[in-house]
Amino acid sequence: MEKPLNYAPIEWRGNKVRLLDQTKLPGEEVYFETDDYREVAAAIRELKVRGAPAIGIAGAYGVAVGALKIDVTSPEEFRAKLGEVIDTIARTRPTARNLFGALEYLQKAAQSGRTVIQIKNNLVAAAMFIHEEEAEATRKLSEYGAELLKDGDTILTHCNTGPLATTGYGTALGVIIRAHRQGKKVKIIADETRPLLQGARLTAWEAQKAGIPVTLITDSMAGYLMSRGEINCVITGADRIAANGDTANKIGTYTLAVLAKENKVPFYIAAPTTTIDRGIATGAQIPIEQRSPAEVTHVQGVPTAPAGVAVYNPAFDVTPHRYIAAIITEKGIIRKPYTQGIKQALTVA
Ligand code: MRU
Predict the structure, then answer these.
(1) What is the pLDDT of residues 264-288, one digit of tens each?
(2) Beta-ladder partners of 31
(3) C-beta of residue 139 within 8 angstroms of C-beta of residue 104
(4) % of residues, the chain, pLDDT over 70
(5) Cα of 32 from ligand 1 centre, angstroms
(6) Where do the domains of the chain lie?
(7) Are 110 and 143 in contact (CB under 8 A)?
(8) Predicted structure pTM score
(9) Given the CA of residue 174, which atom of ligand 1 is nearest to it?
């Protein structure tokens, strides 16, 4: 597999999964290994591993390590216990479609195999397959997306969508990394992405590692820059895309999309087709994760608000498809009307 950068956010190593703890970046590059599915579930919940494709991959390996430890000989008993493992992983984070697609794939993989050993082998192979497919999809979509970027472009991006979030090239950041590697002189404006600062901590770190000029701004500065003509386009990733193109992504994405429209700046979504949820018609049906108030009242453990203040902390918002100029996938670039384009993309092999 072509590796864009020299760090590996998720690796399968001798029946264990090794994760890069993203909560410690950029200060420390700390890896930890586990063969305990509950630890994988906790890592997803605590954002040690995060980003829609990476959540799907980690979830798949979580099921694999959980399956390997089930100590029964009857396939029926095994499948019942596997159900508990899958449920635990499914209850971690509700928004990213990639997690549920991966779990459905593993559930199916567990149906074939006559012995417990065969089923366990199937599950490990299925998790590795999901990992390869997700990474490969970002390699392809980054090539399609790079066609939209011109030499000299300044691109605004939100949250973190690079190798850390995907294990491959990345989605939105992957497109930018690809354009940079093609020799285009592109620059990144990274939103810091409150409350958990994925843009400041992770995108700025990955852009520096990739050798791409990056300027960090607070989320509230984006409109000012767009109004001054300093942004050529906005690209973000996605956690779940409805059949009509409505897209859930990190909180603040919708604000950027509206600002982009007002300022006539193209707003693109980049995501593998595993992020598309063909089962839901519009963004109104996308489950939005609510997270702990402490993430808003504290910055890296330090209180920044009075104790007891009421807090609202939705982790994602939904951008209506009318604001999206194109959806960049590994099957090609999808344009309006999205319902038709998405259906077509999902039927292409
Ligand atoms: O809460 P996070 O850090 O998991 O949120 C991640 C995002 O919103 C990303 O933009 C999205 O998952 C796409 S990752 C390629």
Answers:
(1) 999 999 999 999 999 999 999 999 9
(2) 20
(3) no
(4) 99
(5) 21
(6) 10-139, 141-347
(7) no
(8) 0.97
(9) 15
